Structure formats: structure tokens, C-alpha cells
What does this fold into?
Amino acid sequence: MALLIAFALLLLIDIYFYQAVLAVTKSWSPLWRQVGRIGFWIPTVLSFSALIWWQVADPYTINANVRNWIITGVFATYFSKLIGIIFLLIDDLQRVVRWAAGLFQKKNEALPGEPITRSQFLTQAAVIASAVPLGAMVYGIVSGAHDYRVRKVTVKLPNLPKAFDGLRIAQLSDIHSGSFFNKTAVKGGVEMVLNEKTDLIFFTGDLVNNESVEVKDYINVFDKLKAPLGVYSVTGNHDYGDYKSWNTKEAKQQNFKDLIEAHRLLGFDLLMNEHRFIVQGGEKLAILGIENWGGGGFAKYGKLDQAYAGTTDAAVKLLLSHDPSHWDAQVRPNYKDIDLAFAGHTHGFQFGVELGDFKWSPSQYAYKQWAGLYTEGNQHLYVNRGFGYLGYPGRIGMPPEITILELKRA
It folds into this structure.
């Protein structure tokens, strides 16, 4: 029943917007008029077919990406039409007003302006306006999905030992390997990381979307990530299989074990509520890593107290924690000597505007810290915009990020 109601609503959107197509194509040649009008219904047929298929089968069994493409296709088709419908509603409103005004006119007195017909300007504007978001989404897939950007950041720490002055760290986050569709481009992103020749590499969670098997084809890509002082990683909310229905509890547990094994095969030192020390010049730097700890309704598997235990004598403490909400919730109130935290999770909503010091994204309405460097007192948090993508297989104005962060003595 719910599907039938959804189809009815979508069909109403199609029928209403089709009036604009009829008006715009009216003056075209017979052949192109027919092409335009038939072409309008092709995305509708494809969308309905895909949704029906989703109901009778599980597209995920074919490819981890199939459901993402279905969601993206249906959303792009109808969101663009809804934008155009705004102009059609304005047009219909002015027609209603003119019609109502005509009821009060004398019989032979004409209303100023054209008769009550569809406005050519607003109708054409509706078609053009609907094409803009559709074009942007296509561009975000073709160009934005793998347009990796290196962002270089310097963080000054007052208690940083001289032995670690100038330490360079590469951070990746939110790989979401189950969403990739261009392996060559992903390899290019990994090469960009290696070209920076950093001392450390951090990965802050979400290796997959739902299942550990998604990373299988990319083991031989990300296992190239190497750094003199090591590659360290943590888990994100998507790594636990919490967003998939499993046949048995044991199957879900095995999936997570396989996910942990994938980190080992990649050469990542996975920190599960634990820490590691790096010693140089007789000085200690502690790297703490916790399982996912998310704000709101997200899972809270992380145990910072366990990761922190035994690190008090480290001159500097760096924390890997997937969700930036954790910083305000636990880190800053209770662990004043954690100098710098690394997070991801938000993706910058894969959509936004960044011009110079100005940045905007819908992500900022959901997360206080959503992209870039944040500082409170002597504590810092860096939120990576993500290497991959989830749901919509692209990015608009929020390119995938490779962070190169350098530590300097204050």
C-alpha cells in the first residue's frame, strides 16, 4: 500500500510537470516534439521499475552500489522536477488571480496583459530550473566523486617535544569502499597520499558501508599506504553492520571479525579502545584510538577510559575517534590533556560551498564541528571531509579530502 501511495504521488508530479514539457515542445518540429515528450517519461519508467525491483528482490546481492544508484536516480529525477514545479505553481497562481479578477470585470472590459494561458517565460524557466540540480548532481558524480584535494594544516602544540617538531600526519576518513565505481581514480587518490611522504597515516573509520566483503577488491589499493612511523586506524559507525538485516547474530559477528581482518591485511594497526606509543629522542607521543562513539542515536562502542589508561606520561596525546560529536561530549570535559583529536563521519554532507574563509554546508546544522580545524583552549579537533561517499555517489562543492597535518612547537 505504501508503495502504491508513493507511486501515485510521483505520478502526480510527473503529470503536473509534463504540462510544461507540452508547452515548451509545442513549437518544435514533429520529430523532436515526439522525442522530447517520450524522453520525459523514460526516467519515470526507469524509476518505477527500479523501485518495484527493490521490493521484490535485494539489489545489494548483485552489487553494493546498486541501491545507491537507485536512490540517486529516483532522487535526482524527482527533486529536479519539484524545483521546476515551483515556477509552474507561480504561473498557475497568477492565472488563478487573473481569472478571479475577471469575475469582477465588466462584460466587454478586457483585463490588461495576455489572456489566461500558461506564461511562456515561467514555463521555460520551470524546465531550465529543473535541469540545473539534475546537471549539478550528474557533474558531482562524473567530476566531484574522485576530485581529491590535499588540505595542509599546521597545529601548534605548547607541550610538543623538540623530537616531534615538524611531525607530518596524513589523515583519511570514510573510505566507504562499497560505494566506489572507479578503481583507477581511487588508486590516484592513494598515490596522492604517498607523494606527501608523511611520518604517520591515520584512518578514522568507515572502511565499508555495511559488509566487510565490500573492501575485498580494494585491499590491493589501500595496502599501499605506508609511513615510517606506522598506519593507525579505528572503526566507524558503518563498520559494524548495524544498518543491515542479518540472518543470524553469528553472521553479523563474523562480518565484524572479517572487518578487523581486513584492517590487518591492509597493514593498518587497528586501535580498539587502546593506545600505542611512539618514542623519539627519549620523548613519548601517545596515539589513542577508540571504537565508534557517536552522538545522538549513533552507536557508542568506544571506551576512551580504556584507551587513555597508561598514557599520562606521554608528552603529547593524539586521539582517533570517528564521530566529531565525541570531542564535546567526552574528550574536552574529561580529558584536558588530549591535545589533538582526529575525526570524520560528516562527509561535509558531500554538498556545500567553500570560498576562502567562508564555508557552508547543511552538515553544520547537524554537527557543531563538521569540517576543518577547531580549537578550544589548548585542545584541537580536525574533522576530515571524507575520502569516499555514501548514498549519493558524488560530491558537489565538497570534494573528497586528504589531510596533511603538521605538528609544530608553539
Notes: The CA atoms of residues 341 and 381 lie 5 Å apart. Residues 2-143 form one domain. The mean pLDDT is 92. Residues 66-102 form the longest helix (37 residues).
